[in-house]
Amino acid sequence: MSAIRENATHNLERLDFSMTAWLDGARPEGMICFWKTTMPEADRKRGIVIDDEAVEEIFERLAGDDRPNRIAIRWLLAMILLRKRRLKQLRVEHRDEKEFWLFARRGAVEGAEAVEVLRPELDESAVQALADELGEIAAFDG
């Protein structure tokens, strides 16, 4: 269980309790609210966490990069942005035996230029390699 309380200096602080302690009556003085929480396992592998703006920045930075691994990463980022509703799929076009997905940016005005993303051919090992490379790109500041 977690609780928010006002301490002696009138600041808010969060306190965490085991369920056993909470059920035994442990309550902080000055409690404002409480909620049940679940702590993740200590040895659980954490996923890559990147904020939406960073995903969009990397997506834009990769536009026009024709290296196959970067095309694949841009595709993966487009799927993330589509899921987060930062992009809206408009249509799919086939040219020169390649598949291009066209997207509109969230909030784009009617008739704005579509964002074009080449769909790469990916197998399971390629997806894992992409996730690893995405982590490296996200960590790069310059």
Lay out the secondary structure.
Layout: E1 2-6, E2 12-16, H1 19-23, E3 31-35, H2 52-61, H3 68-83, E4 87-95, E5 98-105, E6 115-118, H4 124-139
Antiparallel strand pairs: 1-2, 1-3, 4-5, 5-6
Helix pairs in contact: 2-3, 3-4
Structural commentary:
The protein is α+β, with helices and mostly antiparallel strands and 142 residues long. The chain has two domains: 2-35, no CATH class; 52-139, no CATH class. The protein has four helices and six strands; from the N terminus they run ββαβααβββα. It has helices at residues 19-23, 52-61, 68-83, 124-139; strands spanning 2-6, 12-16, 31-35, 87-95, 98-105, 115-118. The strands form two sheets. The protein has a three-stranded antiparallel sheet, with no helix packed on it. A three-stranded antiparallel sheet has the order 4-5-6, with helices on one face.
- Cα gyration radius (Å): 23 Å
- Mean pLDDT over the full residue set: 83
Determine the N-to-C terminus distance.
41 Å
Give the overall shape, derived from the CA principal axes.
Answer: elongated
Helices and strands, in N-to-C order?
EEHEHHEEEH
* Number of distinct beta strands: 6
Main β-sheet, in a few words? 3 strands, antiparallel
Number of domains: 2
**Helix-residue proportion:** 25-40%
Question: What portion of residues belong to β-strands?
Answer: 25-35%
